[in-house]
């Protein structure tokens, strides 16, 4: 995605947080955007807040409605006629111990964070293959590279995304299809407040690590550069990104470090 080349970009989870910041950043560059989430009203607010709002179209989308993804892709293609980049950004976090967590919570975490993303990606894939180019950008997490207490289901779903998209990259390199996995550290958004507890209800409170995280705007700017460079993986955050390298070379050390750190 060259800085002087306008693209048609579809962003999920665009009604708040990182998705909202990405929409703002990409709209300033003049790209044509399709923004999606379940909250249609909030999507329109995001659109009105952006420069070049005439180049932003709203498409409500619920990733848990897996069977409707082909229909949603048809709707998206009718807007601008094609899609160049799909940014899989929608997702939800978790804050609960394994022993306390109801199985339905794990099911929801997998349906939204993994299965919904896969269903949408598969529905877009034939279009990318037919036009012989495309770029899947998927927001996973540093928790897709190593794990932390209270986030078992979230970590599992994010690890699964890495497995799937690494395979997709290999299978479709011949079709000029790129895959970029974005691994955020802590971002100062509502992710902790919206995180699912053991019963499936939102946590409704923030935590210090999230409050002290990178601003969504700064993160979005770094993410846009990673997309432009078509990086395989990008670790974006503060000191927490060092966990990826500690895990790789000194896994027992990371285990001790995480247990000593405030994890909620």
TrEMBL record:
Domain of life of the native organism: Bacteria
Sequence intervals crossing the membrane: none
Family matches, as InterPro entries: NAD(P)-bd_dom_sf (IPR036291), Sc_DH/Rdtase_CS (IPR020904), SDR_fam (IPR002347), SDR_family_member_7 (IPR053011)
NCBIfam families assigned to the protein according to its UniProt record, in alphabetical order: PRK06181.1
Pfam families in alphabetical order: adh_short (PF00106)
Protein known as: Oxidoreductase
Family to which the UniProt record says this protein belongs: Belongs to the short-chain dehydrogenases/reductases (SDR) family.
